[in-house]
Amino acid sequence: MKSPTELSYKLARQWQQADVRVDRLLTSEVWPLELTIGKPSANDIQNNISRIQDHVQLWRSVEIGQVIFEPVNYRLTAEAVSLPVLWRINTPSQWALATQDQGILGEYEQLGNLVAGVNPRYRELLIRQRSLWQKKPIDDVIVTAKLADSLLPGAAKGRPLRLLGEYGVDTKFIERNHRLLQRFLDERFNGAATEQGLHAFLDASDDSDHWLLIRSLQKGLLPYSRLRLTTRELVAQELPASRILVIENEQCEHLLPELTDTIAVLGAGLDLGWLSAPTLDQKDVIYWGDLDTWGLLMLARAKNYRPSIKPLMMNKAVFEQFAEKSAVVEPVHAQIEPPDGLTADEANLYLHLLAAKCGRLEQEFIPAGYVKNELTKLGS
């Protein structure tokens, strides 16, 4: 047989389980909860009657929910004994109260304020991942949720995030709530903000140093076959090759063959401002990215910084050749119109990908043999 304190402790432990918390706070079908108290044994009745009386009195004093008493017959008693057998908790608020834990009561009250103030799509996230908001003012969390409702992919249009003043937040607000905003946007756009990074997703310039993977495709051009440099270092120092291959993603590094007088720069994403550096003026600069709307947006951005840049494997023929086996759904499109800087054929390809059911062909899923053949042509 369990005391109110023991069952309160059990309820408090259950509150700490994310799946249980989400289920009970968002699903009405789980209510009421019924916790078994248990019955004393015949030996307890015979030898510890005062303990049983104290146990019964404790349960009679419980005012949260309902304590169910039943008559229980024992051979040692002349008549049935009324004993507590079940504790019924009817609502989430009673659950929080029944834990007898001030921390849980405070969290429940805060969650109530949050749930009332945000779009329902964010409720499960806030209940499941309390660390996102526990140390923040509730008003900031609500404002961040409303900001996430207002933002669309590419909303920054190349500006730093701190300059998004038209959304009613100060210059430091997004910096303070970066992770929370990203997770809200993930709920709205199927994880795209985390997958791409908040800056890339919103097309915002990143004031921090961006590390790029530098890979020499000819032995001896660099002290190491691969190294990492920041964009600031890349702008300041000329790379010792006449051909620079700019690649959107690092994941396709394994596809790169040996190539004379060529250095590959991988993982730039939307951080392409370094392409305007004078150290590249005498170079043959080539760009290869994903065949999706984001890849073509990055190509357009690269062309704006360096108009002479040449795209590689970024045309409709390549997409159609491999789309049937390798193309997937693009979770979030970059924008609804082709970006400035694309040729007419590239803009038509953008619209084609936008309308396609599976309009995303990632670089790493183009066959290695085909990639090697196309790259080898550069050196011929």
What's the structural blueprint in terms of helices and strands?
Elements: H1 4-15, H2 18-26, E1 33-36, H3 42-47, H4 49-60, E2 66-72, E3 81-89, H5 92-98, H6 102-117, H7 123-128, H8 138-150, H9 173-176, H10 178-188, H11 192-196, H12 198-202, E4 211-216, E5 226-230, H13 231-236, E6 243-247, E7 262-266, E8 284-288, H14 293-305, E9 310-311, H15 316-326, H16 344-355, H17 368-378
Please state the average pLDDT score.
Answer: 90
Secondary-structure-based class equals alpha/beta
Number of strands: 9
Please report which band the strand proportion falls in: under 5%, 5-15%, 15-25%, 25-35%, 35-45% or over 45%. 5-15%
Distance between the termini: 85 Å
Widest β-sheet, arrangement of strands: 5-4-7-6-8-9
The helicity comes to 40-55%
Descriptive account of the structure:
The chain is an alpha/beta fold. It has 3 domains: 97 residues, no CATH class; 98 residues, no CATH class; 168 residues. 42% of the residues lie in helices and 13% in strands. The strands form 2 sheets. The protein has a 6-stranded mixed sheet. A 3-stranded antiparallel sheet has the order 1-3-2.
